[in-house]
């Protein structure tokens, strides 16, 4: 019965409305109320304002477009205006001044809600329909920047506390393997001689100290040897022992001045015979770098016959950029990698910083001494050098991205919580690969912004510009 009555009442109501509408008569007040009660009253949808931001699927599917388009069956996408878009910002503040314990605050001006350098002395909306934000007296202090939580969430602002860390940074430079100049030797004669035979040693061979290299005949060495034997065997001509010793020492010194090896002189003392040829041996362990001796040649005094080098210790000369040279110290640890030996690292230390700068490359050479026991490091190989640099004990440090360098100063933003940030000038020390030492301006418990601080910096610059604008208006 209730259903029948409801349907009848609805029909009567609609009928009355139809007749009155066609007869230009006014409906009784109870009619629209009755119709609303029967059909269910729905609140009116607010009118969309602002420009069209994007277009969405008419069926509510997660399909969007920046331009107008249609569905596969020909239906147009629904336009979404600025006022209909979802916003995470705080609700717009009213134009009425906020109240506090000290009384009402005066509104200085209204600023653009998107952070643009645009202000207004009266309330207004931007092109997207967003209300301008009022700036109250006392809120434009230079020490604090206020940012809405919605904007912080969208831009990904993060902060973390400053902490004690060991800040290190490797100084990278290209290098070249070089011979240790102190371990290079040449073999030459101090008297004219003829090379009789040369041993089977060639350039690149490893030789040991005392290993025979060649045999020679020298008239000067033979004459000095004969004089030495004559002096040693002549007992009658010298009456006193002191004079005899001086003659023997003089004859021996002549042989030494001719660079006759000590084992050859020992053979003279043992055999009491002047040898026809003398065997010349290697003065040290090393690699033959050059062989100039040839059988049958005449060697003049000072002529180089062999050049050899001890490669158990080698040098690495690195070209360090001029801006990094102050960070390199004698004794600093260095790591060397060569391209022909991937995966291997060699450890050494800085032995010398050369006292000049290459005017063409603006680099300074740094010498690193490196042990080479297995002789895998060959002279003139290219090397990648990393020299350790940084504080040896923990210091207060923040991530590199937290520091904004303006050229004239360095600042960080301190997170005060609730969207409030304070710019603070700091003194930066050592800059590591990931962290920078802070010598002044930040304590161990301070939280600094480490991500998206460019947004806060933009807000800070805007606030400074608006403050200057306000001060100029007050001065008028």
TrEMBL record:
One of its GO terms (biological process) is copper ion export. InterPro entries: Beta-barrel_RND_2 (IPR058792), BSH_CusB (IPR058790), CzcB_C (IPR058649), MFP_Cation_Efflux (IPR051909), RND_pump_MFP (IPR006143). Residues 84-104 are annotated as: Disordered. Keywords: Ion transport, Signal, Transport. Gene3D superfamilies: 2.40.30.170, 2.40.420.20, 2.40.50.100. Pfam families: Beta-barrel_RND_2, BSH_CusB, CzcB_C. One of its GO terms (molecular function) is transmembrane transporter activity. One of its GO terms (cellular component) is outer membrane-bounded periplasmic space. Coiled coil: none annotated. Residues 184-309 form the CusB-like barrel-sandwich hybrid domain. Residues 314-388 form the CusB-like beta-barrel domain. The keyword NADP does not apply. It comes from the Bacteria. Residues 396-456 form the CzcB-like C-terminal circularly permuted SH3-like domain. Belongs to the membrane fusion protein (MFP) (TC 8.A.1) family. PANTHER family: CATION EFFLUX SYSTEM PROTEIN CUSB. This is Cation efflux system protein. It comes from Nitrobacter winogradskyi (Nitrobacter agilis). The lineage of its organism: Bacteria, Pseudomonadati, Pseudomonadota, Alphaproteobacteria, Hyphomicrobiales.
């Amino acid at each position: 019965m209730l259903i029948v009555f409801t349907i009848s009442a609805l029909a009567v109501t609609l009928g009355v409305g139809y007749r009155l509408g066609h007869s230009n008569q006014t409906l009784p007040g109870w009619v629209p109320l009755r119709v609303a009660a029967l059909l269910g009253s729905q609140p009116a949808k607010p009118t969309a304002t602002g420009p069209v931001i994007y277009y969405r699927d008419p069926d509510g599917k997660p399909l969007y477009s920046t331009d107008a388009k249609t569905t596969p069956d020909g239906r147009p996408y629904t336009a979404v205006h600025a006022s209909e878009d979802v916003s995470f910002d705080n609700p717009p503040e009213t134009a009425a001044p906020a109240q506090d314990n000290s009384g009402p605050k005066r509104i200085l001006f209204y600023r653009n809600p998107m952070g643009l350098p645009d202000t207004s002395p009266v309330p207004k909306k931007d092109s997207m329909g967003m209300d301008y934000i009022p700036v109250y007296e006392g809120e434009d202090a230079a020490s604090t920047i206020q940012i809405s939580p919605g904007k912080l969430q969208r831009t990904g602002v993060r902060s973390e506390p400053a902490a004690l860390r060991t800040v290190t940074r490797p100084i990278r430079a290209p290098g070249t393997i070089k011979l240790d100049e102190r371990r290079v030797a040449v073999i030459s004669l101090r008297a004219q001689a003829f090379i009789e035979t040369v041993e089977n040693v060639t350039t690149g061979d490893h030789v040991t100290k005392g290993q025979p290299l060649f045999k020679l005949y020298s008239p000067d060495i033979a004459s000095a040897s004969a004089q030495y034997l004559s002096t040693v065997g002549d007992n009658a001509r010298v009456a006193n022992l002191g004079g005899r010793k001086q003659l023997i020492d003089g004859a021996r010194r002549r042989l030494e001045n001719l660079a006759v090896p000590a084992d050859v002189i020992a053979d003279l003392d043992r055999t009491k015979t002047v040898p026809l040829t003398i065997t010349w041996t290697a003065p040290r362990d090393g690699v033959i770098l050059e062989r100039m001796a040839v059988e049958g040649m005449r060697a003049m005094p000072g002529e180089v016959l062999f050049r050899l080098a001890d490669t158990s210790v080698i040098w690495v000369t690195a070209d360090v950029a001029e801006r990094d040279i102050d960070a390199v110290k004698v004794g600093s640890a260095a790591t060397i990698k060569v391209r022909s030996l991937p995966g291997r690292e060699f450890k050494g230390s800085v032995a010398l910083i050369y006292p000049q700068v290459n005017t063409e490359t603006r680099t300074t050479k740094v010498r690193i001494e490196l042990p080479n026991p297995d002789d895998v490091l060959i002279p003139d190989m290219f090397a990648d050098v990393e020299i350790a640099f940084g504080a040896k004990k923990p210091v207060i440090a923040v991530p590199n991205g937290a520091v904004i360098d303006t050229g004239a100063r360095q600042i960080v933003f301190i997170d005060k919580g609730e969207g409030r940030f304070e710019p603070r000038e700091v003194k930066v020390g050592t800059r590591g690969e990931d962290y920078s030492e802070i010598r002044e301006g930040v304590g161990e418990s301070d939280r600094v912004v480490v991500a998206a601080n460019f947004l806060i910096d933009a807000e800070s610059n805007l606030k400074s510009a608006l403050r200057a604008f306000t001060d100029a208006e007050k001065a008028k």
